[in-house]
Amino acid sequence: MGSSENEAVVGRLIDCINARDTAVMDELFHDDAVMEWPQSGERVRGADNRRAIYSAFPQLPTITPRRIVSSGDLVVAEAHLDYDGPTYETVFIFEFRGGKIERETAYWSESFVAPDWRADWVEQLDQQLS
Questions:
Q1: Residue among 76, 77, 37, 75 nearest 57 (CA)
Q2: What is the layout of strands, in order, in the sheet containing 29-37?
Q3: How many CA atoms lie within 13 A of 129 on its CB side?
Q4: What Cα–Cα distance (Å) separates residue 108 from each residue in 40, 73, 82, 127?
Q5: Per-residue confidence in pLDDT tens, the chain, 130 aa
Q6: What's the predicted TM-score (pTM) here?
Q7: β-strands 100-110, 29-37: how paired?
């Protein structure tokens, strides 16, 4: 599979989470896929654990992609996550094998308002902050 096909898989993943239809994830991830969340030091290994995590989520976010770039079996997605309250800016790194996700690494940070002292040197991005 090429980069554009892998980007389409990431697009389907975002769509299924936004639709709260996480069963579709079984079509997108390998059964032995690993998801890593370095900031909390967690690793989710395998389909059974992924299903359990997503079925236990108190609330899934609405994901708004900002940018998706890819090369071969690597796709990086920048996105805004909204949990109907807290919002996060997130970077997802997806590694593919044979057209399915083999590894996902996610980094996220709560959104915050930029300090006034930097205003003279920056452009303000169009984003919603809570």
A1: 37
A2: 42-45, 29-37, 100-110, 87-97, 74-82, 62-71
A3: 9
A4: 10, 22, 12, 16
A5: 678 999 999 999 999 999 999 999 999 999 999 999 999 999 999 999 999 999 999 999 999 999 999 999 999 999 999 999 888 999 999 999 999 999 999 999 987 888 999 999 998 876 544 3
A6: 0.89
A7: parallel
Into which CATH architecture does domain 3-112 fall? Roll (3.10)
| Structure token pair of residue 114 | 């930029």
Q: In one letter, which amino acid is 38?
A: P
Instruction: Provide the residue type at 87 as one letter.
Output: T
